Structure formats: C-alpha cells, structure tokens
Amino acid sequence: MNDFFQQRLEEGIMPIIQNNLMYRILKRYDTEEAFGLISKCFTTKEGFAKSIGCSEQEYYDQLEGFKEDYLVSQLSVVVVDILSLNRIIGVVLGQDFYKPSLCKPKLSSKIQQLLLFTQEFKSRSEQILENLNIQKKEGNVFFSSKAAVHDDYMGQSLIRKINQIQQRQAQLRGFKYIIACLFSPYLQKDKVLQKESQQLFSQDITEEMLKQKFQNVEIQYQMVQSDFKDETPKIVVVRKSL
C-alpha cells in the first residue's frame, strides 16, 4: 500500500486523496448517488435480491428509508473520482451494531422478505458476539455492511481501502470490535449458494419459515486482527453458508 495512504490512514486524517481518488465520510448530499450505486449492484449481482425480483427502486427506497442510521454513525465511506466530476465510484455503509434504528420506513413486500432474512442473520450474529463475551452496548461493536464499486473501477482494491478507513475511523471513535458479514455480491460466486438462495426465495417467506431454515444453517466466524499496530478494533468476520 502507498506510504502516503498508510500514513494518513494511521493518523485518521480525512479525506484521503490518492491517484485522483478521494476517500471520505458519506455526507447527506452523497446519499442519492451512493444508494443508487448500491441498489444497481445488489439487484443485478446479489443472489437474494435477484431471486425475488427486487427492483433497483425498491432497493433504493429501503436504503433511503434507513438513511439517518447511516448518516448518524459518520462511518459510512465513499470514494469519488476527482477527474470525473467527483462521481462516487465506491461505497461501504456502516453503523453501530447495537444502536436502535432511528427510522421506520414503509417498505415493499419484497424488501420486507429481505429484511426478515437480515434480522434473523443479525440475531445469529448477536449469539456469536455473546458467546465471545463481547459487551452488548452502543459504541462497542461497529457493523460494516453493504459495499459496492462501479464496474469501471473493479480490480483496484477500492473496497479493501474503504474497509481499512472504516476500521481506523471506528477505532478512533472508541469501537472495540467490527462485525463484517461476508455476504456481498462480489463473494457470491458459489453455484450451490446461488441455487439455495433461489430455492429460499421461491415463495413468500415468513419469520417462522426462516427460523426453521436457519436451524440447518451453519454460521462460521473468526476473529481477525486489524491492520493497525495496537489490538483494537478486532474484527468478527461472520460467514454464512446454506
């Protein structure tokens, strides 16, 4: 990694500018473009959203509905191309894992199905954190969630750099742990997983159906040391396998 980038990263100085790309915290005026990028990515590449035929607009409306949660954390990060009219080319959203949501959006039935799955997955993740004796309180566990990169900028390790910025900024704000779910469109290339996801969402699902399904779901995790010299934040990587 570039020494300048690493130095700015360690110092926690934002924004970071490297090779005409600017990495900075998500602002309110960024949300339309950033949410649009995520919506396009997840509805065309992510298995579950594709399986139920979720539209870009429905996915966007969900993100817009929870906008305040992402803004209040000040830990969602975007990267913009300075030479392309500051176009947002990458984004990773994040929020306090234990902070109650500020939002009560109206959601489509398809998005409600997706959120049922997300809620059950979060519940299982909470069990893992509890088993690790990680204290359940606001400001202790940061959740790094949805990530997207513009197709024209793939292969430049943008998500990795954004994740490192998130880790450092979370550390500076006092978070001791980061939970990251390996469940992005870029990781869902397993044909078995794709088939299972299609079967799961082949019909309208209920909370009870999900609980039954999750009885046979293995959720793996591992503790990963951060890229920084001291011991925090530790990263809890949660991996789902159907």
Summarize the topology.
Elements: H1 3-11, E1 16-18, E2 21-25, H2 31-45, H3 47-51, H4 56-65, H5 67-73, E3 77-81, E4 87-96, H6 109-131, E5 141-149, H7 158-172, E6 177-181, H8 191-200, H9 207-214, E7 218-224, E8 234-241
Parallel strand pairs: 5-6, 6-8
Antiparallel strand pairs: 1-2, 2-3, 3-4, 4-5, 7-8
Helix pairs in contact: 2-4
Q: What do you see in this structure?
A:
The chain has 242 residues and is an alpha+beta fold. Helices cover 42% and strands 21% of the residues. It has an eight-stranded mixed β-sheet, with helices on both faces. Helix 7 (158-172) links the parallel strand 5 (141-149) and strand 6 (177-181). Helix 2 (31-45) packs across helix 4 (56-65). The radius of gyration is 18 Å and the shape is globular. The chain starts with a helix and ends with a strand. 31% of the residues are buried. Residues 183-207, 209-235 and 237-242 have low confidence and may be disordered.
Main beta-sheet strand count, sense and barrel state? 8 strands, mixed
Number of β-strand runs: 8
Radius of gyration: 18 Å
Q: What are the secondary-structure elements, in order, as H or E? A: HEEHHHHEEHEHEHHEE
How far is the N terminus from the C terminus?
35 Å
| Beta-strand residue fraction | 15-25%
What is the mean predicted local confidence, pLDDT? Answer: 76
- Computed structural class: alpha+beta
Number of helices: 9
Large-scale geometry: globular
List segments where confidence is low: pLDDT < 50 over at least 5 consecutive residues. Answer: 183-207, 209-235, 237-242
User: Can you give the helix content as a percent range?
Assistant: 40-55%
Strand order of the largest sheet: 1-2-3-4-5-6-8-7
